[in-house]
Amino acid sequence: MNTAVLLELHYLPCIQYFSKLAHYPVVYIEQQEHYQKGSYRNRCHIAGANGLLRLSVPLRQGKNEQQPIREVEIAYKEPWQAQHWASIRSAYGNAPFFEYYAGQLQPHFERRPARLFEFSFGLLETLARLLQLDCELRLTEAYQKEAPDGVADLRGAIHPKNRRRRADPHFQPASYPQVFLEKHGFLPNLSILDLLFCSGPQAGLILEEAFVKS
User: Fold this and answer.
1) What are the sequence ranges of the domains in the chain?
2) For 104-124, how does the pLDDT look when each residue is reduced to its tens digit (9 = 90+)?
């Protein structure tokens, strides 16, 4: 029986990702891997007025694909942080719990950390706290091709592209009210921001419901 899970670090991770944090008491975050383009490492999806909206953190030009994840640097040529927060506010400003949580998330978009890992991990810690998740976040000390016994290895399993995604028998999207539900229908597995702003204190219960026990 697994008592811990191993994940790579995502930007504002999706509900599937957080369902693991809600279930496992220990969560290992892989910090010894290399960056992979086209993944959730620097992108997320939210629900906007016109449907699914992708937010991507721009990275400094270079061979990011071959870089250790801790060395990948953020680009600040464009005011992307202000743009991301404006998109988040536009999407969720009318959500029931936006004003309750926004003040604790907005400061992350006003700092200028040099590296992607630092930025995303800070957000992850804040989100886990806001969701009142009782899990311990640990960073890996060395890269291991195979996870140790008792650790569910989900590195690479949660991916925006269908062909790259692995089947997850322990995840079933749980429905909840969304801002644009009547316009677009229910959009599953968005960034955790969607669930947090729409459901507030009930978000943790919905994450537990989304985790399917064998």
Assistant:
1) 4-210
2) 999 999 999 999 999 999 999
Tens digit of pLDDT for each residue in 64-88?
667 999 999 999 999 999 999 999 9
Length reported for the chain: 214
Nearest to 9 by CA among 156, 133, 110: 156
